[in-house]
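Checklist before submission:
- one chain only
- standard amino acids only
- sequence pasted in full

Submission:
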Amino acid sequence: MFVSINKKILYSLVILLILLIAIFSGLFINFYVTQMQDIKQSVYMRNKYVVSLLQDNVALQNELASMGKSYPEISSQLSVKNLDDAQKQLSNAQKLNAELRQNYDDNREAVETGAKIVIFSLCMVILFILLLIALLDYWVVRPIDRLTDISRKVAQGDYSSRLNKSKTPLLRDEFDILNHTFNTMLDKTESNIKEIQQREHFLQQLIDAIPDGIRVIDQTGKVIMANKAFYAMLNLRQNCVGKKCFCAYGYKNEECPESKYNCPLRYLAQNKDVFLRTIHEINKKPFFLNAANLQFAENNNTNYIVESLHDLSSDVRFSHQQKVSSLSFLSTSIAHEMKNNLGAIRLILEGLLDTEFKDVQDESSPKKYLLMVQRQLVEAVKTPERLLRLAQYSEQDIVELNVMAAVSDMVMMIDYDAKRHGITIKTNIADTLKIKDNEADFKMIILNLLQNAIKAMPNGGTLQINATQRGKNIVIDIEDTGVGIEKQNLKRIFEPFYSGNEQAKSSGLGLAIVRSLIVKSGGSISVKSKKNQGTTFTIKLPIVK
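Returned file contents:
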């Protein structure tokens, strides 16, 4: 129980005062009672002596009366003698009575004097105690109260308050030294805190400048700090510092399930490794996680874990942009070369038809074949034009696409490769299906899936493309009769840099790019596959992005 020093001093002085009053009262009462008992004893003895004198006097008178009757002459002498003796006794009694009265008066004066001394002493003691209380209040209690108030403010985080001290104290005491020391301590503490805050601000700015998501957690899973990139990657709007680490993954009161996430906290504690490198899929976005133990101090057993999240979808977008850029360069080169050469051939052919075969019927064999060559030249010129349209990438270009036309363009681009591998391509798409989306993104999705289907059928097969409208969505199925995908690999085929065929010279970004583009358009993709029976990719895209 907290009791202030002021109260302690006050209570102590009150108890001391009560004890002093009790002692003085006891002494006074004891002295007074003793004096009264002495007076009572003196009065008792005087009364007893007077009674005995009266009794002797009565006996003497009786004796004189009896003798006077028998001897008249003797009775007169005895009466005179007895009278003198009686007078002497009476005089002695009067003296004794006077002495007793004087003793009583002396005792009463002594009692009164003792009472005055006790009262005066008690008043002096009370005055001394009050003076002592005032001095203690001024010298001790008030400085301690000021020190307590400043300490309370410091405990609440206010380091700007200081103890008031006199400029030139006449008599310095311990509290003056304590005030100076305490103010100096507060000055250094405030300076150190400002320096620490500046370092923390610099450190926060430093990690905020890192493009990857950075997070530090302690052994209990509590988040110590995180940078802006971490919040942006996971779409976190609230500050997660001070909360449990699993809150960032959407779990409020339960830890991350082991089947879904390889927890760095659990892994590093169990395996005692220095690093953990793994891939986490959060909100349908792949992240490369690099976690490491960090010891706070050399002689401190407290360890922290530093997590670094790298958004693999950014690598996917960069790879997609690289592909588009390369395709743009390739398309420009092809278009330039093919258009020049094919244009020259077309001019020669049209000149030949206008001069040599102008009057010849179209049904004649030479002219018919020449017209067929002309039509093929026109179609051949369209190929680099398709590449140019595919390479003209802009995220803001949302146009209305004819699904069948867009798919047909991509089928024509892989038609030669498909025929070379003995693959038959079938389509079942209504000409009325239309979608509003980015043309380059949509065609890149279809082209990647068609290329994967051809790679899955090295010995030939059938590639079936179906498209239907279901509500406000377009559903496209791309089905092949190829080698299929292992069941344990189905969950990983959309991970960046993952390739099911270790011998294949592939970056493993094709399906990651496909899923990234589909998610950006607000759609979804799923896959079904059986080993050696084929694979079906199902794309679901909204009609309007």
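Reviewer check: The two ends are 69 Å apart (CA to CA).
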